[in-house]
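Researcher: Structure for this, please.
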Amino acid sequence: MVAPRRTMAVRGIAEAMSSSLQPLFKPQSVAVVGASRRPRSIGYELVANLLRAGFEGPVYPVNPSARSVHSIPAFPTLDAIPGEVDLAVITVPRDHVMGVVDDAIAKGVKALVTITAGFKEVDAEGAALEAEIRRKLRKAGVRMVGPNCMGVIDTDPSVRLNATFATTNPPAGNVAFASQSGALGEAILETASHMGLGLSSFVSLGNKADISSNDLLAWWAEDPRTSVVMLYLESFGNPHHFARLARSLTRGAGKPILAVKSGRTRRGAEAASSHTGSLAGSDAATSSLLRQCGVIRANTVSALFTLAQGFANQPLPAGRRVAILTNAGGPGIMTTDAAVHFGLELAEVSEKTRQTLKAALPVEASVRNPVDMIATAGPKAYATCAEALLNDPNVDGLIVIFVSPITLDAREVAVGIVEGVRAAGADHKPVLSCFMGKHHGNEGMAVLRDARIPAFAFPEAAAETLAAMAKFAEYRRSPIGSNPTLNPPVQRDRAASVLDIARRRMGPEGGWVRFAESMHVLEAYGLPVAPWAVIEDAKQAVAFAEEHGYPVVLKVDSEAVLHKTEVGGVRVDLRRAQDVRGAFAEIRHNVADIPGDHRFVIQAMLQGGRETLLGVTADPSFGHVLAFGLGGVFVEITRDVTFRVHPVTDVDAREMIEGIRAFPILAGARGSRPVDLAALEEAILRISQLVADFPEVAELDLNPFFAHHSRKGQGAADARLRLAERE
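Model: Predicted structure, token format:
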């Protein structure tokens, strides 16, 4: 499926945000406030880098104590500069920054980069100063990167801007990089230069007082020089805004986003009360959000650069079928294992291709995938075999491995690989390589990289990169999903009246809704529940069982009891009246010493289905996060759960169900009857609608929710619903 174009609304937002960054990335003139004549100072290096990069416009050093800096006339203040200033880079001490900001606004400067540190990252006084600066800039319509940042680079030949104090000037290319960590900036630029990974632009975000990664996504969505975006993030400013803008790149513009998001702590999840809340930590929300908008998440900055080599230099594959070409059996096996591990499939090469390979290789060679040409394979064999495999219609991508023996020149082999790739003319199929060994290996890798064929030191990196490219291609081809009309429709007013009663009882601080109220809310939203009743004694419990049929379940309903099984508060599979009476007496005894208002519930026992968990929790940064997995008392041990950030579409719901490891159990493994997946998907969508209508729902657990092969057999056996505190 062809990815749809960005909506007019998202495109309009992106274009408006993008135009405001024009003076930052494409300034006609730059002033450095705090320029210095002292070597190795930040003010000295900033001016030097602007000159070394060959910035096309005038550079104005601002230093009241110097007549010139780097042989360029200096000015005492911004106001003293005779011409207009588009961009001002500030590197004065913290206590002088506010004055420079006032001068910049008065001068009509359009954008600022504040290198100076000592703001909200240090103390309350710095935070207050930063907030006041932001207020002034927004009132004046001036954009700012920082404070506490390294600077900005734009390699556009018509601009050649390096407004950083880094010692490395990266090569020009098609990759944009934003880092929230200034300390990583130098390492990022040096690594990009070492790998030959060309950058279109680089931004050190610092404290993000004004310009955030969201602004940069809007800019890069419209930037014709950027085709890949790399992010190092420590926090999201507005996650839902990020998601909309990220999709405008990944879906709309076809530009992959590769991201490292630090801060994987579970401390916030430890304080949660429900199963869903304890499972859905902020990192789970982060991963879900990134997955939903097509962002490729890497675990380390090193992995980020590994992936970037493939995305920046090669086309996306049409599928997951990979051919492996090697001159050594061991690395071929390593690559095969890695490819399967990361989700690729070994291509079944055609008979025609095998005949071509046989004609080019000695009889000892293996012409089945992985193709082992043996150690004597030289440049000609690599050229012929690479061409044949790329021309095979069963092959979507190629990984070429060379282990350098003393008898072969790695550079000549690399030339042969390049010739074979070019002869195939398959510029729609990605080719990645792995050169192992030191015998002219670096020279060979240089040849490949000059030909835009990524070269890795180990085969696992090539397999992981190609797999990530295949997954992104599938995301681009997949349907967006929709929010179908629910039938029967939800009864919002009915649910609202129930929650209003609960809120009046618990007050503004919120709390757990009683079982009966939770069930009424679920029923109002068309979520099936097992027949139930609140009872006061064993006689009423038996009467219910006689009416609805055995077996039944008896349990306590109490605000003081979260997990009923842990206090002996539930008995299942009660099949006779005497069992019901005994269970009632036992449960009442078990909770007698627990303070609180205890009620008792009897419920028809759902049978023949699979226990699942459906839930939602409100994350302080991301909003509501929906969860799905196998349910029951061991859900927090097995942790076989998938998450999506609200709102979810029908595609999201389907992916949640199919994404758990135990999905084959639901799909009918070993001849068992599959559950009604469409009905299960609908249940997730109804929960999504519930929290859309009632954002005050802080936590909701349906555990267990029985998935059944028949829609009529599906239903919630238990529910816990908590309302958030009112602000």
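Researcher: Any notable elements?
Model: The first strand starts at residue 30 and ends at 33. The longest helix spans residues 459-477.
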